Structures are given as C-alpha cells and as structure tokens.
TrEMBL record:
Its biological purpose: Converts trimethyllysine (TML) into hydroxytrimethyllysine (HTML).
Residue intervals of the TauD/TfdA-like domain: 105-339
Protein name: Trimethyllysine dioxygenase, mitochondrial
Keywords tagged on the record: Carnitine biosynthesis, Dioxygenase, Iron, Metal-binding, Oxidoreductase
Protein family per UniProt: Belongs to the gamma-BBH/TMLD family.
Organism the protein comes from: Melanaphis sacchari
CC cofactor: Fe(2+); L-ascorbate
InterPro entries: AlphaKG_dependent_hydroxylases, GBBH-like_N, GBBH-like_N_sf, TauD-like_sf, TauD/TfdA-like, Trimethyllysine_dOase
SUPFAM superfamilies hit by this protein: Clavaminate synthase-like
Catalytic activity: N(6),N(6),N(6)-trimethyl-L-lysine + 2-oxoglutarate + O2 = (3S)-3-hydroxy-N(6),N(6),N(6)-trimethyl-L-lysine + succinate + CO2
GO molecular function: iron ion binding; trimethyllysine dioxygenase activity
C-alpha cells in the first residue's frame, strides 16, 4: 500500500511500511544519538501496519496508524529521500588535457577558509583531482594539510609514508622502473579512497620520473561505447588481487569496473596489472580480451596527463577513479604522502553539504 503525496501537479506514491519504519517522533527515533529506537516486536509489527487516516497540508504529512500511533513528517524530507534527491556533484569525465586544466588549485594558506576547502573537495568530487600549492615540502606539512580533509589512513605502508628509490616494501613503486597506470590497494576489502602525493627532493641531474594519471571513469565510458560486451565483462567477472610481504598477505576479489546497483553508474575502477593473483577468473578468454582492450584505452596518449611533481605542490586524487603511473627515472627522487579512506572523505563532503 502507498500514500499519494501531491507535489505541484504530480502525485508521488510512498510506501506506508517505509513511512512507518522511518517515523521520526521521539518514541521511534533518538534525536540526541541520531539512532532509531525499536524492538524486534515493534519492527515485525511494522510489516503489517495500516493507515487509519492521513492529511497533507503546509509541507506537513500527518498519519494516524491502525495501532493508534501518530507520525508527522516534513513532505520535502520524505520526497527527497524516497526519490533519492540530494545535493550532487556530477563527475566531469576528462581526457588528459582536461585533467591538467580543470581541477582547482588552492593555496595551502587559504585552507582554513571553509569556502577554499569546499573548492578543493568539490574539485576532487567533480574531476577526481585536487591541487594545493604553497606547501612546505616536508612530511609534517603534508600531514597538516591532509588533516583539513580527514585523518590519514594507516596501512601496511604506514600512516604518512616516504617513497624513494629504495626498497622499503615489496612493491614496484619503490623501484625506479616505469609503472603502468593503476589503482592502488585493490587487494584491500575497501581500497584506499584518496591518494596524496608531494615531491620532496629531485636530483637536478636525474632524468625521467614523470607522473602520469588517467581518468578511469572516462576510460570505462569509452570502453562501453567501443565494445559493450567488453565493458559488461569487466563489470561481472571477478579477479583476485593480492599483496605479500613478511608479516602481511592481503587478498580481495572483485570486478575491474564496479557499478552502483541503484544508479547503474560506475563508482569504482580497480585496475592493477601488477597485483593480480594467479587465481584464474571464471571466464578466462572473455576476461583477457576485455582487460587488454581496457588497458589499450588507458594507454592512449589523449587519455593521459603527464606531468612532473614539484616540491611545494601537493596533488590529491580519487583512487577509486583516477589511475596513476610513472615513467622510469635516474637519480634521487623522493616524495611523500598518504592515503585517506573513502569513508572519511565522503563524511567530510557531507558535512560540507557537497553530497
């Protein structure tokens, strides 16, 4: 059964079980702790609830239920949640040239201003990339910057980490060879959300070492257009990623392209050619053909923003969307950074009313 809410000239049916389950009166909801009050018996009774009477007037919906309980709702609150209306920043899918030009550049000195922090966060939500200038090239200053957004995420690599051409961990990023663009930590059950990079020191006589980033959402869009079957395969076929070093062995299975079942939109790319475990995917031939096609798109020149990280400039990107790589290099190349969990980043975005 439903209640018909009239909004302008439109009647919107709202399920009555959902309405009763989401009553916000003081008997049903604890507003101090932002938590429902319920018992097993109360919840089971909700399944068979009926409406005795209801009225809608002046943006209020009042319901008298068959068990005598009364509920009052703001109509707009009901409609916005039921129809999933919300403040939303649509991703702007980018070729490499656009990744270079469109993301916001915010001065570190202005991050204490709410509007500047919102500009940085909005850039990450919209383009997958945010850039902060005028940062002291130290790990301490980088951490201070990060904490304007959220606390750094501790992983096997530490909380704040430094990467150079030395073997701190059993990971190819600690070597000086080229890196194909990839997403980090595909072997975690929840991949790290944001990645923070800040170059500290670069050998003036060193060669190479250019950073490369690609918009994975744009690449997925192109794959779907060029070969819908290949796109579908990478949303369905699960592959296993793993990371092994003394004392740690991480594994996680999932598709390369993750789709939100509610919106049917891509919400995560988990592409890492290095961290794939030997466990064969369920449809081997289909997987390899689709994976190779996606890699070929990611490697196209027009997809890539190739740039040189510089001391004083911090780049933050969405690891669920942006793939990063590197050309080979000679000489000393030391940079630092950290991860921020997607959970913490989205929490901050909600506090700033960006999503």
């Amino acid at each position: 059964m439903t209640v018909q809410l009239k909004i302008g000239n439109e009647n919107i049916p709202i399920n009555i079980i959902w309405l009763r389950d989401n009553c916000r009166c003081s008997e049903c909801y604890d507003h101090d702790y932002n938590s429902r009050k319920t018992t097993t018996q109360q919840f089971l009774k909700t399944i068979n609830i009926k409406i005795q009477d209801y009225t809608q007037a002046d943006n209020n919906l009042c319901i008298k239920w068959s068990d005598g309980h009364k509920s009052e709702y703001h109509t707009k609150w009901v409609i916005d949640i039921w129809t999933r209306k919300k403040i939303k920043i649509e991703p702007n899918l980018c070729f490499g040239e656009e990744l270079e030009k469109l993301p916001s550049k915010v001065s570190y000195n202005n991050l204490t201003l709410k509007e500047c922090l919102k500009e940085l966060m909005e850039s990450i939500l919209k383009y997958g990339v945010g850039i902060i200038t005028n940062v002291e090239p130290t790990l301490e200053a980088t951490e201070k910057l990060v904490r304007f957004i959220a606390q750094p995420q501790e992983t096997v690599f530490g909380t704040m980490w430094t990467v150079g051409n030395h073997k701190n961990h059993k990971d190819p990023s600690y070597l000086n060879g080229p890196l194909i663009v990839h997403n980090d930590s595909t072997y975690f059950n929840e991949s790290t959300g944001l990645q923070v990079f800040h170059m500290f020191e670069r050998d003036i006589n060193g060669k190479g070492g250019f950073s490369t980033i690609v918009d994975g959402f744009k690449a997925a869009e192109i794959l779907k257009k060029e070969n819908p079957s290949h796109f579908k395969n990478l949303t369905e076929i699960e592959i296993e990623s793993e990371y092994i070093e003394p004392g740690f062995h991480y594994k996680c299975k999932g598709p390369v392209i993750k789709i939100d079942p509610t919106t049917n939109e891509v919400y995560q790319i988990r592409f890492n050619i290095y961290d794939r475990s030997p466990l064969p995917p369920s449809r081997v031939n289909e997987f390899y053909k689709s994976y190779a096609h996606f890699l070929e798109i990611l490697e196209r020149e027009e997809m890539c923003w190739k740039h040189c990280l510089k001391p004083g400039t911090v780049i933050i990107y969405n690891n669920w969307r942006i793939l990063h790589g590197r050309t080979s290099f000679t000489g000393k190349r030391i940079f630092g950074g950290c991860y921020i969990s997607m959970t913490e980043f989205l929490s901050k975005a909600r506090i700033l009313q960006l999503i």
